[in-house]
Amino acid sequence: MTDFFQDQPLRIAGHAFTSRLLVGTGKYKDFDETAEAIAASGAEVVTFAVRRTNLGQEDGPNLLDVVPPERFTLLPNTAGCYTAKDAVRTCKLARELLDGHKLVKLEVLGDDSTLYPNVVETLKAAEELIRDGFDVMVYTSDDPIVAQELERLGCCAIMPLGSLIGSGHGIQNPHNIRLIIEHANVPVLVDAGIGTASDAAMAMELGCDGVLMNSAIAHARQPVLMASAMKKAVEAGREAFLAGRMPRRQSADPSSPFAGRING
């Protein structure tokens, strides 16, 4: 950032973060690569699937050795859950494993082929989790009305998909994302569908408060290098949004005005 402007931190459920890039831990070849990619991303919030991650409840490699809670904000998620009941149970398991941890990422999926959110079950799970004291960041469709209802229930961040999970198709409906942002009073983060750095920059230029990704980094040919690229893209997109882009014009507008020019 320039000396004359200092951005505000990203605030979620009482936590303040300098980085607006949130990353996942799945799909890497091993924990060493996971650790290197997270470090290159500059992320402070790291999400993981509770059902698929060893946090010490089993023998073998432990994610907490790579992502120590004293250094990162852990964001357990309910990936793989297809009902509100399963999602709520999974969040309670995470709270037990992490000594009362309250911040969770809720996702309730509709089917295996699209991994599209089941909005009905998501709303049901969000209401129960919030009533039970959880701080809920919620993965949802890009429907602005659903986003408003999730905020009304008390979700601390709304996370609409850009496109299908793991598809890498980028933001397919920027107009809906912008509508969600315009009506939200909590942070809005694009979650799912990011494929490359330009997608992340676009999300931030739309006015998103942050971006969460996993596959775009983990499935890159060089994940650590892509993590670094994503860090820069999120920062650049944020600065571009704050700076305010020039208006689009139908005709040319010369960079050097004719008025006052010296005639030869």
Instruction: Give the SSE string.
Output: EEEHEHEHEHEHEHEHEHH
User: What share of residues are in beta strands?
Assistant: 15-25%
How many DSSP-defined strands? Answer: 10
What fraction, in percent, of the residue positions are helical?
25-40%
* Strand order in the largest sheet: 5-4-3-10-9
Radius of gyration: 20 Å
- Biggest beta sheet attributes: 5 strands, parallel
Number of helices: 9
- The low-confidence parts are none
Outline: globular
Category by helix and strand content = alpha/beta
Q: Summarize model confidence as the mean pLDDT.
A: 91
Q: How many angstroms does the end-to-end distance come to?
A: 42 Å
Brief summary of the model shown:
The chain is an alpha/beta fold and 264 residues long. The protein contains 9 helices and 10 strands. The model has no long low-confidence stretch (mean pLDDT 91).
Question: What do these coordinates show?
Answer:
This protein is α/β, with parallel strands linked by helices and 264 residues long. 36% of the residues lie in helices and 16% in strands. It is built from 9 helices and 10 strands. The strands form 3 sheets. It has a 5-stranded parallel beta sheet. It has a 3-stranded parallel beta sheet with strand order 6-7-8. Strands 1-2 form a two-stranded antiparallel sheet. Strand 7, helix 5 and strand 8 (157-160) form a beta-alpha-beta unit. The radius of gyration is 20 Å and the shape is globular. The mean pLDDT is 91.
